[in-house]
Structures
1.
Amino acid sequence: MKKRVILMGPPGGGKGTQAVTLKEAMKVPHISTGDMLRAARKAGTELGKKADAYISAGQLVPDELVNGIVAERLAQENDGFLLDGYPRTVAQADALEAAGQAIDAVVLIDVPDELIVSRIVGRVSCPGCGCVYHKETMPPKTDGICDKCGGTLVQRNDDREDVVRERLAAYHKQTQPLVDYYGKRGLLVTVNGNASVDEVFDQIRKVLEF
């Protein structure tokens, strides 16, 4: 039977990049909270309709609804999955356990805060064509100008340093209880995210033994 894995990591820590590679290597679906909400709304399930009312009103979907949608979605998977963006709280972790979903491992991609800040704050993008650059690691040929379309590069509001640090503080506050929760259950494995994409993947592959 294929593994049921939860993937955790800070914003800008490379979790999304690893998820794309992992789902192919593990041959399991990559399921994110956003994907589940969209699928439930599209399918018009009872829970999906309730979630749609909150989302359409610009409100956060309550925990009990998210828990129900996750349980509904995971019930369709009989042979492994890669879960991303859920659980976010101990209450959600309890709900996942109560839904009968036995987790094989929780992979935490650990990246120092200062490296995260450097990664995100250095990003600039082109509003015209969507190309993304990094001032230090992948700069455009001409400072402030998109190589592809010649548009003016901008920094997104949520990539400003003060916003990034707020997001990291919220992440740590939210994640630490889950780290303790899964650590006590012997399910947590931590990999060093301060490495190349291939090196991080290799670490995950070794700890998950696939």
2.
Amino acid sequence: MNKKDIADIRKHFKPDTDLLRISDIYNVYVRQESSEIYHEESQPFALMEKEQQDLFFANFKKVLGGKLGMKLFEVRFAPPAEQQNDHAQQLLYAGLNSTEVEDWKADMQVIAQKMVADAQYEKDLVITFIRGKYYKATKKNLEELEMAEGDEAYTTPFILCSMNYTELPKRSLVFDFIGRAFKSSELADPVVKLASPIGGFLFPCFTDNAPDVNHILYAAGKVNHPDYQFIEEVLNGEEIMTAEDDKAVFEEIVKHVVGEEVNATTLAKVYDEINRITTVEEDEEEDYVPTIDTKELERVLKVSGVENVNAERVEQAFQSVVEDELYELKASHVVPNYNTKSIKISTKVANISLSPQDLKYVKQVSFDGKRCLLIEVEEDTMVEGFTLLEEALFE
């Protein structure tokens, strides 16, 4: 799946749409102290009160929110073990194609039991499963419109899961209009925190409008903090790499080629070149995700002015850091965010934040036997309302 696919299905989680229809919802309540299913209920989604539907729509959007490689991860299913009867792919596929609600619910219950079998959650947990169909019009000019009768569309059955903590409402002072008196609130029912899911998934993934039942879209609760045990034990998925992992691998590979020390100008050129190919190639083909292999990294380093770079050195660097010879780094993962001051320079004296395109204005120099950070500026520098005077660097 790409970000456009995710954004499209996400925006259709709303009431009164013809492009996404939810048939069934199944909720499971798990007590923290027992890690067992305390209560469960299932019903047609259309029979829920509108207020509840709206809350769940917002929750499902939250599950699918975030960037690929940072909060959302396309996970490939690992092959099932011999005689394994609780493999997630098999359960989800069976539930997806089941004509009986009870059969679907039974498959989802097994997955819910896997979630709580060897995990200790911080609070009571509500696990929500829905199944439905997502429609995507074949004509681009119809994508923003509701489908008319007879319109052709790609149809993708899906199952989505959301995991949410509960919390008890805080006691507060309230005014009783009937009794005309102030008193403390007596609410004791736990509140399901639908606005901040701690995880979930969407099955199946889809590519080029076709379902891909060999992959599942996993949603982490926090950026760059996927639950690896959940992916392996519950979803029966293979190992994944986060954007943070890609960036760390990239840095280690570059260090093997150019060494531990690099000047700011060279680093700025490396970032600019990778950002350029990322921007240009993503604009040319929306479904394409630019990657960096050994040949591309060799080219980037040479263009950036790094000396003594050749194919052999780069290949050796890759092999020393990554076991998979065919591994490719996602280009968007290895460069800091160009839209924010994402580069942090920390010293004992000061902490500085700047955007990658401004890194070329920074240099570390030696002055009077001391290391200094030199920052080129085009305007007056203000400190606590005062404009700094220019001082002679060399006297």
